[in-house]
């Protein structure tokens, strides 16, 4: 699956996928890498506002469940895109991945705040936010090496 390969091999898998699905030479692929990142950011940015508003009127656990379900569907779509050699399908998967993560990013801190013991709330929110940074830095380290 593309999603699994991306995690383990990074840009090498993307280069091969873009070359095989679009027939673009390696030197011309930067725009396609940018589109993949932008697709995620668009889904995440736009739906962060929506999920932030919904967090005021709906139960956080349900919003997290909906977002996680969307994210799972997105990962499956990204995986299928490799088998059908469809860059457009990968873009759709990336947008949906951003949507799924937006729900979690907006709703998890208030959820922790509401359900954690008062003396431990700050610690748990700190762990949650630090995990985001650790995850990003581990991916950047893989790309660098």
TrEMBL record:
Task: Give the source's domain of life in one word.
Answer: Eukaryota
Q: Which PROSITE patterns match?
A: MFS
By its UniProt entry, which SUPFAM superfamilies does this protein fall under? MFS general substrate transporter
The molecular function terms in GO held by this entry are: transmembrane transporter activity
Q: Which UniProt keywords apply?
A: Membrane, Transmembrane, Transmembrane helix, Transport
For membrane topology, the record states: Multi-pass membrane protein
Compartments (UniProt record): Membrane
Q: Where are the transmembrane segments?
A: 31-56, 63-84, 123-140
Q: Can you quote a single GO CC term?
A: membrane
| InterPro entries the UniProt entry points to | MFS, MFS_dom, MFS_spinster-like, MFS_trans_sf
Main location, first listed in the record: membrane
The Major facilitator superfamily (MFS) profile domain, residue ranges: 1-145
Q: Please report which protein family the annotation says this sequence is part of.
A: Belongs to the major facilitator superfamily. Spinster (TC 2.A.1.49) family.
What name does this protein carry?
A: Major facilitator superfamily (MFS) profile domain-containing protein
Annotated organism of origin: Phytophthora fragariae
